[in-house]
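Throughout our pipeline, every protein is held as a single compact record rather than as scattered files. Such a record has a labelled line for the sequence and another for the backbone structure tokens. The remainder of this section carries one protein's record, kept here as part of the documentation:
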Amino acid sequence: MVNLQERPAAVTKITNMQEKFVYDICSMYDAEYHFLEAQQMMSQCVANQELKSLLQKHIQETEQQIRNLEQVFSNMGQQPKRMHCEVAVGLVSDGQRLILLTSDHPRMLDLAVAETQAKVENFEVICYRCLITGAEGMKQNEVVKLLQQNLQQEQQTVEKIEQCLPKLRQEAMSNTAKAR
């Protein structure tokens, strides 16, 4: 359990909306790096070509999203900085465990990767919506545009993954039935 009274020495208390926004951007910046590494690993594990292609495309989008966040930092007069994102670490760790547990069954593994990626993308959608709301409140129009680009890519990726899930689930189920 985290003791909220104990703060890491490098972190100062947040006292205004801009400081909170910068904290959230730093956390999202860290999350995108964790997710990029995970996507690179997952794209090598999957057998389903549609899912593999989707992951490879989203790797390129994630790299652009990181550049967009770096531009957000610049627009805010800040240096890019990663603030440890526990949620990202947890999602990646959970996905890695599931991949290990399904690694002997390629169809099940494909489903596990797709479901893990769907969780990640939905988390990112919520984060970007909150960041956009914060940037709008601070009248940071250029920042809003950059964040909206990231949000749009995340939403499109969620839609594509969710379209793949029924087929992947059916393949995993039929493969499991054959193994019995």
Q: What stands out?
A: The radius of gyration is 18 Å. Residues 17-179 form a domain with the Ferritin fold (CATH 1.20.1260.10). The longest helix spans residues 141-179.
